[in-house]
Every structure is written in structure tokens, then in C-alpha cells.
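Page 42, continued from yesterday. The earlier attempt failed because a stray header line got pasted into the input along with the sequence. Redoing it now with the clean sequence only.
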Amino acid sequence: MDLLELLQYTFFRHALLGSLFASIACGIIGTYIVTRRLVFISGGITHASFGGIGLGLYAGIPPLLSAALFAVLSAFGVEWLSKRKDMREDSAIAVFWTAGMAVGIIFSFLAPGFTPDLSAFLFGNILTITPADIILLALLSILLILFFTFFLNPIVCIAFDREFARSQRLPVALFEYMLMMFIALTIVSCLRMVGIVLAISLLTLPQMTANLFTHSFKRIIWSSVAIGYASCLGGLLLSYKLQVPSGAAIIFFSILIYTFCKIGKSMYLCKQKKTNQTNGHGN
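This time it went through. C-alpha cells are written below.
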């Protein structure tokens, strides 16, 4: 079965739309994460969101809604604790990371009735994405596009040099809390696609690949969106052909893209170096 035949299925069209909006959201906020070196913090928020899923299942409210609330509060908690003199940033992250996972596991098992399939939240399955999930991702993408369009200069300033941003009298703390909120919401929005375990990869691998070829913040965003969507498409096809979980296939494909680009760049630089040396000896 080829791609055109797959497009006849509603679940596959939903997966393509969800992938597009997830690539836009992750491409934008992921560039800030990689530039600010917040990968470990994002990992903490991702795992802390599992606490919200457990509480949601226990209380009988939509798990993604409670996960979003839990993730945002955890993001604010990490940001607040890491600013204190008596707590190191990695310790603050570890507190929320482990607490979130513990709360999530305890409450998901205490939830009345049949214990749900937790692997769906841990590893994701983009083929189960619903129209409501797509609308959520679309709204988040629009919000991120608007926020980064209007405030790109302050965001870039804060991402590269917070002290300089403060000297320019920018509301650094406000921007940092807003961006942490967007990180948390993006992570939760992608849970259905790639799950808790793999969400962080979608926020970092496309940006790392783009960073091989450019150091411009804007170009990294655009390239990350394109690379992220290519990873999703490749992962979906790989998942269908091999009959493996789609979330893992998407991340595996993005790693392949990064590896291919990294090797390609290294070979190109070696070739350039040899050419320059040959020209130098010729002169």
C-alpha cells in the first residue's frame, strides 16, 4: 500500500494534520529550549506531567487537561526553585521529575475501574489522535506563532544573554515564566503523538539538526519545523511498514536524519579542508 492509498483513511489524515501542527509548535519552542540549554528542564516537565495523568484518571477528569495543569505548575515550580540560592537547578528538576512519576503511577493504579493502558501515555500513538487533539495543537501553534512574531527580539535576547536583556530593562522573569508555560503546554499537546518518554526528542533533535547548518534563531525555527515534519512523515511510513509504535518510529527517523546530516557535514568539511590544503601547497 502506498502513501496515496493510506490517505483514504481518516486516522492517517488526522495523523498528518497532527504532525504538521506538532512540528510547528515543537519547532518554535524547541529552538528556545536548545538555545537556552533547557533540555534537562524540559525532560523534568515531561515526566512530571505523568502526575497529572494519574490524578486525572483518579478524579475522572480528562487526563490531558490535568496533565497540562500539572505540567504548567511543575514548570513554574522548577523556574522558581532554580532561582533560589539554596537549591541547585538540577536538584529542583529532579524533585519534580521523580514526584510527578511517583504520583502518576500511584493514582493511575488507585483509579476506579479498569486500569488504563499507561503505555499509550508513555510511548504515544499518533494514529489514535482525535479531532480535539488536532484543534488543541492548531491553537497552540497559532499562539506560539503570534507570541514569537511579536516578541522575537526580546526572546532572542533572553535566550542568548539574560544579563544583557536585564540591562535593557526587559521583563526577563515574565518572559521566562511565559516561555516555561508554552514548553509545558507543547509537551502535553504532543503526549498523544509520541508519549512522555519520547516527547523531549521532538523538541530537540530537529533543532540540533538545523543547528548543524545555521546559527540564526529564525532559520533554526523554520528548518526545525521542516525537519520535524519530515521526521513525522518518515516515522509514520516506517511505523506502517514495520508494524511498530509510531512515536518510537518518528523519533528513530529523526535520529537517522540527524546522523545523516552530521556525517554529511563532517565529510563536506574534510573535503573542504583537503581542497584548501591542496590549493595552499599549489600556491
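Notes: The chain has one domain: 3-282.
Reminder to self: strip header lines before submitting.
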